[in-house]
Specification:
Blueprint (H helix, E strand, L loop, with lengths): L1 H13 L10 H26 L1 H9 L9 H4 L6 H30 L3 H22 L5 H19 L1 H6 L3
């Protein structure tokens, strides 16, 4: 009788991550981070689209480069149509990233392996961009973002708990 209870207990331990009702807490946190990114990306995308005319006026109206905006002075020569299309494309790319992050977050919570793979790819791309941007000087936020991305990659790829959770 005692052996049978212990066997049932061990069986429950092996299946504790099966189904979306009980993913490991770290996967829940990673999922929530993707939900937050999704919300931020949609806000940025909508802001770019809604305020595109204002942004173009600010870029093309820069006559004075004494405010440290020398890089933007080159955009003055561009056609407003090209700028408008570029800003709209960037806005729609951010909205697309928002949807991608939303579905990754949802399916990470549901322990879908494709979401795990895409989360790792997103973290790799983001880490690469962070390292590239840190070459000219690192800020505290960049260091924190890089640490989070490295943790996400390490956890989803190397930790046994994550591997077991995503097994089918």
């Amino acid at each position: 009788m005692e052996e049978q209870r212990e066997f049932q207990y061990n069986t429950k331990q092996e299946n504790k991550y099966k189904g979306p009702d009980n993913p490991p807490i770290v996967i829940k946190v990673i999922s929530i981070l993707h939900y937050i990114n999704s919300g931020l990306y949609i806000l940025v995308g909508l802001a770019l689209i809604i305020f595109s005319k204002y942004i173009i006026n600010q870029i093309t109206g820069l006559g004075d480069t004494s405010f440290g905006l020398e890089e933007l002075a080159n955009f003055q020569e561009l056609d407003e149509g090209v700028l408008k299309i570029s800003i709209f494309v960037m806005g729609f790319l951010f909205i697309g990233l928002s949807f991608l992050n939303f579905f990754v977050a949802r399916d990470l919570w549901r322990l879908k392996n494709w979401a795990r793979i895409i989360a790792v790819v997103i973290a790799l791309v983001s880490s690469t961009a962070q390292i590239y941007n840190m070459v000219s000087g690192a800020t505290l936020m960049q260091i924190i973002n890089l640490a989070i991305n490295i943790f996400i990659i390490g956890y989803l790829v190397f930790f046994q708990e994550a591997k077991e959770a995503f097994k089918k």
